[in-house]
Write a structure and sequence with these properties.
Blueprint: E1 4-7, E2 10-13, E3 18-24, E4 34-39, E5 46-51, E6 57-59, E7 67-72, E8 77-82, E9 91-97, E10 110-115
Parallel strand pairs: 2-10
Antiparallel strand pairs: 1-3, 3-8, 4-5, 4-9, 5-6, 7-8, 9-10
Length: 116
C-alpha cells in the first residue's frame, strides 16, 4: 500500500504562515487528485483543499484566500502554503490521494497549532 508522510507543521502565532509537505513512498496514484484534510479532537476529518493532476484547485470556504495547494507531479508530492493563520486552523493536517474516496492509508499527519 502507498504510504504518505506529512511534515511542516508547528506552532505559529496568529497571522503567521506555515508550509506543509506531503511525500509519497513511490509514484503510485501520481495522476490522482490530491487532497489536504484536517481534524481536531472530537470532530470529523474536514476536507481543506484539493488539486487535480492538471492543477485545478478547490478550497473549503474557511481557508479560501489564505491557503494555497500545489503539487509536484515529478515527485508525487503535495504542498499546502498556509498564510494568515488563525487559531481555528489548529488541527492535525493529513494528505491523501483520490477524491471523493481516499486511496491511500492515512499517515500520521502533522500538527498545526496557532496561538492567539
Amino acid at each position: 500500500q502507498v504510504q504518505v508522510t506529512e511534515s511542516g507543521g508547528g506552532l505559529v502565532q496568529s497571522g503567521g504562515s506555515l508550509r506543509l509537505s506531503c511525500a509519497a513512498a513511490d509514484m503510485t496514484y501520481n495522476t490522482a487528485t490530491k487532497t489536504w484534510y484536517r481534524q481536531v479532537p472530537g470532530k470529523q476529518r474536514e476536507l481543506v483543499a484539493s488539486i487535480t493532476f492538471g492543477g485545478i484547485t478547490k478550497y473549503a470556504d474557511s481557508v479560501k484566500g489564505r491557503f494555497v495547494i500545489s503539487r509536484d507531479n515529478n515527485r508525487n508530492a503535495l504542498y499546502l502554503q498556509m498564510n494568515n493563520l488563525k487559531p481555528e486552523d489548529t488541527a492535525v493536517y493529513y494528505c491523501n490521494f483520490g477524491l471523493p474516496r481516499p486511496l491511500v492509508v492515512w499517515g500520521q499527519g502533522t500538527q498545526v497549532t496557532v496561538s492567539s
